[in-house]
Specification:
mainly beta, 8-stranded antiparallel β-sheet, 8-stranded mixed β-sheet, 10 helices, 44 strands, about 35% strand, globular
């Protein structure tokens, strides 16, 4: 349920188009990086900005064509002689993971399209074997894996049972949405074997979306979607021997319909694979190694939780791929919060563990381990949960050292070179933004200054951070943007922006704190107080007790925290308690509805976008992770759902949803509408035909949505001092 995260990404793309840098890929040595430019692909020396053309744009023109390929991504064979180019990419679920692949051979200067016999834009996750002689890929149209010989173009299928319900080498909707799993096959380090996921989705029912506008007759769009309480796809691991063509199923304990396998990689010896298996409730994690020759699984490490266990995607930018080996593959790095904090451990292949980071604070992101496996770089913020800084620690243990200089107070991000000696450093806080400095590591010396610096003006409306105590031992972080003409002797309307679920924080000390992308104009100039507060259960680096206190209490604990914070804020002399609005998108839309229904005496106006009205209508992986199984504790799902409290809404409600939302189905809007109508609760509704969860498709959509939001807010929660 990466809903708020996806929404913020869209904000940055639509409204801050220059906030991301060009596509960059560090060289294997880590002292240069590749970059797309108008000349093709260039190698850049970051220390002096010298550039050398690695692959010219002219080389990217296929025979018989006039235009060069539009390259979206690329990889390079280990011998540096072949370049695998990804182009014509198309969206699958959240990302553009299917398209066309071409190989450019630097020796003979030939450009060759892979899988040319297949339908265009249907290849996925193409990868060289370690020798650079073959490429394997998934063909999306039939969900089978193929290997193509680069010397003669021969294509060999390694699976033949693929279909829309039998998925090889990639994943179903829910694995991608909730685990971050997309690429579902791995070459062994010696190139002799491919290990791959197979998902049997034959028992997963299709949810049917309907398109009424693109044809004179409506038609349905089936989405493979396991609802709460329904069994997931059966997940198994298989191997394919390149030489013999033999395919084998990996033997693992447990019912494949009641377990998940979000992670699987090869051990460095190419004889074993290693994987993580979660039970259905995601509160028990097991690590298995499997000897491929003997097909024998060994449980080397088990962890249990009273709530849930997060996987690598949580601290690796939603990517669970890769295994962090040390000691030449005899041990690996593992991150766990079993002692109350997210810490770094070492685990060997016999399951013996050693705690590396001993201090009681949370790892936010695991950024890099140097090639020698001696130093780990990670981000954390032990004293301020709204910020983020770079730290290092030796794999042998010891004390973590903050590398980010004290002069940078806010949110720091690093693109670290593979050798761990340099990083592209960007920094922002609620007042300023600085991008793309080059720094040395571990000393953090500036080699090249930031190439972009922006400082907010007072007239922009600058966020202030505050803390609000809602109980003797519970204090919440918040930010607030006051009106530009603020007078503490007057009273102003307050608008709360809320998310409130385990997928994301809203209170972060970065450049976008206090910004509302749906408001036309300036809320601060118009005279609003704009506030966001992070309740317990949000993924702030405050320890696992903070994050997991919401277990089986989504829609209850998070909502009461928000309401208690609002009550404290309403005690401020300059807040007008008669003009209190709240808005949120997705999980934030659910929170908005719950706040309106559970605390109608506080919230007078609400704008809810793409909300889950009934938790039983969302997907099983997300909702069961945080709420348990409805077969065991159905009341928790019902008591946390906005549907239960819709009859209590007294204030103004604008509800917005896209009918083409494959994430939070429009079904939620319709069951909510029925409940509101049943109890004569008046509201306004805006349905966007065929728009997805982000409601951005179609000409004029974004402008219309912003105008709708702004006009409704101004009408029902008028701005300005009184």
């Amino acid at each position: 349920m990466k809903k708020y995260i996806l929404h913020i990404t869209l904000i940055l793309i639509l409204f801050f188009p220059f906030c991301t840098s060009a596509k960059r890929l560090w060289t294997a040595e880590g002292d240069h990086y590749y970059e797309f430019t108008s000349k093709g692909i260039e190698i850049v020396n970051p220390k002096n900005s010298e550039r050398v053309v690695f692959l010219s744009r002219e080389s990217l023109i296929p025979n018989g064509k006039q235009e060069a390929l539009d390259i979206q991504d690329f990889s390079i064979s280990t011998d540096q002689e072949k370049i695998l180019l990804f182009t014509n990419s198309q969206r699958v679920w959240r990302e553009n993971t299917r398209g066309d692949y071409w190989v450019f051979n630097k020796k003979n200067k030939q450009l060759h399209q892979l899988g040319s016999k297949f339908t265009a834009a249907q290849l996925m996750f193409a990868k060289f074997n370690p020798q650079g002689t073959h490429v394997a890929y998934v063909y999306k149209a039939d969900h089978n894996i193929y290997i193509e010989n680069l010397s003669d173009g021969m294509i060999t299928p390694i699976t033949n049972d693929g279909s829309d319900k039998m998925i090889n080498g990639t994943f179903d909707w829910v694995y991608e949405e909730e685990f971050g799993c997309k690429d579902g096959f791995r070459w062994s380090p010696d190139g002799t074997t491919i290990a791959y996921w197979k998902l049997d989705a034959r028992n997963i029912r299709h949810f049917l979306m309907i398109n009424n506008t693109d044809s004179i007759y409506s038609y349905t769009i089936p989405i493979e979607y396991p609802k709460v309480g329904q069994d997931p796809s059966a997940c198994t691991i298989w191997t394919y021997q390149i030489k013999s063509g033999e395919t084998s199923k990996v033997s693992l304990p447990g019912d494949p319909f009641q377990h998940y396998i979000p992670r699987m990689e090869w051990c460095l010896d190419s004889k074993n694979i290693i994987l993580q298996q979660l039970n259905r409730k995601q509160n028990e994690s097991k690590i298995f190694t499997v000897n491929i020759q003997e097909n024998l699984a060994k449980d080397i490490y088990t962890e249990k939780s009273d709530a849930w266990i997060d996987i690598k995607a949580r601290w690796n930018n939603n990517d669970p791929a890769g295994w962090d080996w040390i000691q030449n593959g005899k041990a690996f790095i593992w991150i766990s919060e079993k002692d109350g904090w997210r810490k770094i451990y070492q685990i060997d292949l016999n399951g013996k563990e050693k705690l590396i980071s001993k201090e009681d604070f949370d790892i936010i992101n695991f950024d890099l381990m140097d090639p020698k496996g001696e130093t780990i770089y990670f981000t954390a913020s032990p004293t301020n949960a709204t910020q983020k800084y770079l730290y290092s620690i030796a794999t042998k243990g010891g004390q973590a050292v903050r590398l980010t200089p004290k002069e940078y107070e806010g949110t720091c991000s690093y693109d670290i070179s593979p050798n761990g000696k340099m990083a592209i450093f960007s920094f922002s806080n609620h007042k300023e933004l600085k991008n793309n400095a080059l720094v040395s590591l571990p000393l953090h010396q500036t080699l090249i200054d930031f190439d972009r610096k922006i400082t907010k003006k007072a007239t922009d409306g600058i966020a202030e951070f505050f803390k609000v105590k809602i109980a003797a031992d519970v204090e919440l972080d918040g930010w607030m943007v006051k009106p530009l003409d603020f007078n503490p002797a007057k009273k102003y309307p307050v608008v709360f922006m809320v998310y409130g679920e385990p997928a994301s924080q809203t209170v972060l000390d970065n450049f976008y704190a206090g910004y509302n992308n749906l408001y036309v104009g300036s809320m601060a100039k118009d005279g609003y107080i704009y506030i966001s507060v992070d309740n317990r259960g949000t993924p702030a680096p405050k320890g696992s007790q903070w994050r997991k206190s919401v277990y089986r209490k989504i829609g209850q604990l998070n909502i009461s925290d928000q309401a208690l914070a609002a009550k404290e804020i309403l005690k401020w002399s300059f807040v007008d308690s008669s003009r209190v609005a709240v808005w949120g998108w997705s999980g934030g839309g659910s929170s908005t509805l719950n706040l309106l229904g559970q605390y109608p005496e506080i919230y007078k106006t609400g704008i809810a976008v793409a909300a889950v009205a009934n938790q039983l209508l969302y997907d099983n992986v997300y909702q069961e992770r945080y709420m348990g199984l409805p077969q065991e504790n159905l009341a928790d799902f019902e008591n946390g759902s906005p549907l239960k409290y819709a009859k209590n809404i007294k204030g103004n409600l604008l509800y917005i949803h896209g009918t083409g939302d494959d994430n939070v189905h429009y079904q939620n809007a319709e069951v909510l509408i029925n409940e509101l109508v049943k109890h004569n609760v008046q509201f306004q509704l805006m349905s966007y035909p065929n728009r997805s969860h982000s409601i951005h498709e179609g000409e004029g959509t974004s402008e219309h949505l912003k105008t709708l939001f702004t006009n409704y807010l101004k009408t029902h929660c008028p701005p300005g001092a009184r």
